[in-house]
Amino acid sequence: MINLFQQGALPLYIFITIVVCIFCYFFTLYLIKETMPLLLKAGIQGRDLHKPGTDPIPESIGIVSGPMYLGCVILLQIVYQIKLSEFNAGITSICFMVLLGFMDDVLNVRWRVKIYLSFVSILPLIVAYSGSTYVLIPKFVKIVFSTAHTAIDIGIFYKIFVTLFSVFCTNSINILAGVNGLEVGQSIVIGVAVLVLNLFRLNPSDASMEQEYARFSILLILPFLAVSFAVLKFNWCPAKVFVGDTYTYFSGMVLAVVAVIGHFPEMLALFFIPQILNFLFSLPQLFGFFPMSRHRLPKLNEKTGKLAGQKQHHNLINFWLRIVGPKTEKMLCIHILIFQAVCCVAAFGIRFVYREFL
């Protein structure tokens, strides 16, 4: 980034945004420390099921990171005088999800209600969306159907896809959970991939709307990474706080909003390969074919301190442990995050290979 800035290839607004995000990071750390005893006093707490006998841990710390993120983004919006309706609608959708997440942490909302509210939360962004609804046609399809068209307008079906995928994003990080640091860690890895993607798209000599979309995506993702790194410092194993549904819904919606505003939901879907796999593994239990407990956690061996996969729990974490064998909680989290990073790198490879066939 420093080299790009010195060469004039990194716009000044990114440099200013990074400075603002550094202050946001440290202020989030301060607020988390101040909020932890308040959450315990209010009874918003939980126990670390992988560390029996420990004291209650404050939960729903996403109630700090969410508002801090929104405040930082609104400040940047004022500084750069951003008037794009999609930008405002995206902020509204994120605000709705922060509220839903905190409500779920406090009231333990049923799944069907959360899915319904997720649809409601994304509606402001979908209504305000004014971008292209065209999808590219692969070269082999053009050859088979003998057509010269390079893209096709799918209209309302594109918005339906974006809506469904946004709802998936808001819930998928929530169900790939149960290990200290995993929810925040996977969000950070995907967020970094999104940032790299948009840095690749930047071209200061290009004045097209494509550059504006990349700029807006960067302005949205940098504050998210700032608050997420602050949360990770307290949530990494052994966790001092739990992020709660407030953070997981908030992070999923931020990533969805960034992809919609930046016009790359298909690329985000590739970044979400681990979450998609976890969802597919979970389908038998989600549809009631097998009994499902609330947490679906691996089993702790108190003598070795390692976690072992459980056959009755159908999710990526237990499947992974059954393949690689028992692991400590920290190593399990690191394994899943490395897998997340590998999938993101593979997504970039798929993007470039796919272009060769257009």
Automatic annotation (TrEMBL):
Principal cellular location given in the protein's record: endoplasmic reticulum
Domain of life the protein comes from: Eukaryota
Reaction(s) this enzyme catalyzes, per UniProt: a di-trans,poly-cis-dolichyl phosphate + UDP-N-acetyl-alpha-D-glucosamine = an N-acetyl-alpha-D-glucosaminyl-diphospho-di-trans,poly-cis-dolichol + UMP
Keyword ATP-binding carried by entry: no
InterPro entries: Glycosyl_transferase_4, GPT
Pfam families cross-referenced by the UniProt entry: Glycos_transf_4
Function: UDP-N-acetylglucosamine--dolichyl-phosphate N-acetylglucosaminephosphotransferase that operates in the biosynthetic pathway of dolichol-linked oligosaccharides, the glycan precursors employed in protein asparagine (N)-glycosylation. The assembly of dolichol-linked oligosaccharides begins on the cytosolic side of the endoplasmic reticulum membrane and finishes in its lumen. The sequential addition of sugars to dolichol pyrophosphate produces dolichol-linked oligosaccharides containing fourteen sugars, including two GlcNAcs, nine mannoses and three glucoses.
Full protein name: UDP-N-acetylglucosamine--dolichyl-phosphate N-acetylglucosaminephosphotransferase
Biological source species: Anaeramoeba flamelloides
